[in-house]
Amino acid sequence: MKLKLFLALLKTVVLHGLFWLAVLFFYTFFFAIKDSDLWISAQFSLALMPVTIGTTYTFSYVLLPNYLVRRKYFLFSLYSFYALVISASLIIFSAFYGYLLSLGLEWEGNYPVSKGLTFIFFAVYLVIVLGCGFSLVKDYFKTLNRNEELKNTLLESELQLKIQELQYLKMQIHPHFLFNTLNTIYGLTLTKKDSAPGMILKLADLLDYILYETMKNKVPLQREIQHLKDYIELEKLRFGERLTIEIRIAEFSSNIEIPPMLFLPFLENAFKHGKASEEILKIEMKIEIVENQLNFMLKNSIPEQKEILDRNSGIGLENIQKRLKHIYGDAYRLEISEVEGFYIVQLKIPTDF
């Protein structure tokens, strides 16, 4: 770290040194125009360098960043006036000091000061303006880079927050699903039904899916459908003859991928509707691909004890709506309706998103 700072400081010193060396050469040749001697012009230029450097740095590192950039225009104008008065006095003093240093009290026509103070002021303030201009341009690009870095940092932070929130939403679905399934297994073990071991194996397969596949952004649609079928098999063991289910899955390409655990909350919600009822639960599930759009339809019967139902209150359903918004933005369509004793869920998502 110290070496890096040292190298950065050394680079700055070298660049500034080269700039002021170039200014010295400019002064030397500028003041030697027509009839002045180069050596005398160089001595005169050296006398002007301190006031030029001091005034340039005063504007570049004090007045411009602290007042002009911060829109303190009155203070900038006031302090700039003071700086110009002081610098003008120092330029006059430096010009005559250089003259006295080089030639004593003898006035000769070929000395730079003989060209007039206006000529000297023009040269000095031209350099000051250029120096301040370079400083402003450098600060402008530094600000742009800083803003770009800040923007990228904010975007990265927002992305991480969205990823964390998405993971959190998925993790909320998993415990809800496991809670229901384990309760079912518990009930089967209490009655010592032979279906309990098979249900445990199905649950093991689903846990394997949850632990490994759902950590990915996308999974094959075929794998997701198999996951739904395993879940349905578990529910068949629980409902027995009280369940009538129809599954229609159209043929589709094996390359299609979707976010994991996308359809389960809807299916889970459908089975929840029949949980507290002794009526026959009728469920129909349909999945098809139409023109690069995946259509998922789920239809389940509504029991007469309607007060036990709330199609918008399920933890899984609420979270899946947030997930859809995170992943697809406005590129998806979700409709939940009640028609003639059935709840109908229709979800349409792009397959090429």
Model description:
The structure is a single chain. It contains 8 helices and 7 strands. A hairpin with a 2-residue loop joins strand 6 (333-339) and strand 7 (342-350). It is an alpha+beta fold and 353 residues long. Helix 2 packs across helix 4 (117-190) and helix 3 packs across helix 4 (117-190). It has helices at residues 2-31, 38-68, 73-103, 117-190, 195-212, 221-239, 264-273, 315-328, and strands at residues 219-220, 243-249, 257-258, 281-289, 293-301, 333-339, 342-350. The protein is rod-shaped. It has 2 domains: 2-115; 162-350, Histidine kinase-like ATPase, C-terminal domain (Heat Shock Protein 90, 2-Layer Sandwich), CATH 3.30.565.
In short, what is this structure?
This protein has 353 residues and is an alpha+beta fold. The chain has helices spanning 2-31, 38-68, 73-103, 117-190, 195-212, 221-239, 264-273, 315-328, and strands at residues 219-220, 243-249, 257-258, 281-289, 293-301, 333-339, 342-350. The protein has eight helices and seven strands; from the N terminus they run αααααβαββαββαββ.
